[in-house]
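pasting Polyglutamylase complex subunit TTLL1 for the record, 402 residues
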Amino acid sequence: MRVTFCTDLDKSVVVANCERRGWIQVGPDDEWNIYWAGTQTCRSLFSVDSGYRMNDNQIINHFPNHYELSRKDLLVKNIKRYRRELEKEGNMLAERGDSAKYLHLDFIPITFVLPADYNMFVEEYRKTPQSTWIMKPCGRSQGSGIFLINKLSKLKKWSREAKTPFQQHLSKESYVISKYIDNPLLIGGKKFDLRLYVLVTSFRPLKAYQFRLGFCRFCTVKYDSSVAELDNMYVHLTNVSVQKHGGEYNSLHGGKLSVQNLRLHLESTRGKEVTETLFDQISWLIIHSLKAVAPVIATDRHCFECYGYDIIIDNKLKPWLVEVNASPSLTSTTANDRILKHKLLNNIFSLVTPPSGLPDVRWNKIPTEDALGDFELLIDEDLINLQDGDSHYLVKNTYKWK
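structre below
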């Protein structure tokens, strides 16, 4: 059977995985079955002007409006809407505690979109003056344009000096400003975050899988929350694209630690039970972030997507969702990285293609147990009520998310 693939990413990990399966590389104008594309390519392919119509044997690695989850401002907007809707329904998930905080859905830091929410931000800031906030441009990645503030005057000064001051009609670039997690869990005195990979094969019904082999990304400089270190991004930002320019960067391990080793460390220092609870909470927040965007994603049977989730754990072992990437880096900075990313791509291709090997959008997207590889099921709404004994291995995980 001739299966063809196309990619516009100059990444050997994609080509090597496809060729190992005997798939043949073709150009975008040829007849392709699988397209591993950049987000820009997807946008133009799905645009009204392109007039392109995919056939039943074609699949592509992005949903048309994947940015509802990966743009920082839209992620926050969708999660806030999701909470409000559950609250209206009287759903227990949207229950609030004494301080009006959500008891179950409190997994993103207090966040506002600027300039639109400027007045609401000021009101919140005044409740805890001198608290630290982190500013991020909505449409950028890899730590670009991020800075920390702890005084309102700093924000006003930045606004005056920025090319796009906080005036609605002038502002071209919007920012999110979030309460900074200033009590991160430290290992060796250094701050880190988790990069986890989540594969979504359908949003309606929701079908999502989590890759077991994520990793922690460490800062190269010991954490210091003092005002003196507020501008030192080597203390605060875990992005490899930032840290690799630091003098303390170790290219051998790339400032990374596997999730398995993090789990072992936590089990030995904090105990097995709380470690299990933490990882359950991480799965919980991933599922509910996906549920929050599911109604607004243009779900298309030809699409699948691998998202890169960035999660910070605080010193009380509470996970916080920082952001979601639609094109998590496939660049390998270390030998372990290369192995992990090859395995990731191999497992993704096994999950998104039916047992026949030829993509087919009529397939029910229920993979065999062997096809899962290092992925584990997070949720499959099709299977939640399925009582078929053969599917038990997939169903057993879904009950706790019901």
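The radius of gyration is 22 Å.
Residues 4-64 form one domain.
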